[in-house]
């Protein structure tokens, strides 16, 4: 078992500080999120927490061989290079299907989104929509594994561990167009039939009654 302490830092972003933890022997991101470093460390698996964590200032992390590339990628992402995180190595424990879902998430390009159903299909199990949603909820590598790009069918935001405001901000930063479920259209009013009066059968000259057109039926508000 590797006992070398992990390294951690946080980079300021418009969505809040992005904390991440890296294993120094391979420069792989092991945990990340829009929260404090301490909270990100708390979410790590027990075997990783047991190694201990060195928290670096941003200046120290920029000069650290294992952290420098990750810091630079995050800063480029914040500056507008929305594909900068694509090549950063990031790993977290999980079963085969969760791993397939997380891999499928990383294949969603910045600026695009996928539904939970589409994500399940991309991971090889189209019927496992709930399980795909659980993989999103269990993701501890945001935004390197971009669960913010997964929406409900119909365009609803769904959930996000770090808040829907953060999810909206990330999608807007990447240029994604987020749809909204449209309410069902109200049925068109059915015109009432034209009513014609029948002349009265009397000995006096018949008086024609004007044709009446029924007023259109107002549609109810929704």
UniProtKB/TrEMBL annotation:
Entry similarity comment: Belongs to the MGMT family.
PANTHER family in alphabetical order: METHYLATED-DNA--PROTEIN-CYSTEINE METHYLTRANSFERASE (PTHR10815:SF13)
UniProt superkingdom: Bacteria
Enzyme Commission (EC) number: 2.1.1.63
InterPro entries: MethylDNA_cys_MeTrfase_AS, MethylDNA_cys_MeTrfase_DNA-bd, MethylDNA_cys_MeTrfase_DNAb, WH-like_DNA-bd_sf
Entry keywords, A to Z: DNA damage, DNA repair, Methyltransferase, Transferase
Example of a GO MF term: methylated-DNA-[protein]-cysteine S-methyltransferase activity
Domain Methylated-DNA-[protein]-cysteine S-methyltransferase DNA binding: 96-176
GO biological process: one example: DNA repair
Recorded catalytic activity of this chain's protein: a 6-O-methyl-2'-deoxyguanosine in DNA + L-cysteinyl-[protein] = S-methyl-L-cysteinyl-[protein] + a 2'-deoxyguanosine in DNA; a 4-O-methyl-thymidine in DNA + L-cysteinyl-[protein] = a thymidine in DNA + S-methyl-L-cysteinyl-[protein]
Keyword rRNA-binding (UniProt): no
SUPFAM superfamilies documented for this protein: Methylated DNA-protein cysteine methyltransferase, C-terminal domain
Protein name: methylated-DNA--[protein]-cysteine S-methyltransferase
Pfam families recorded: DNA_binding_1
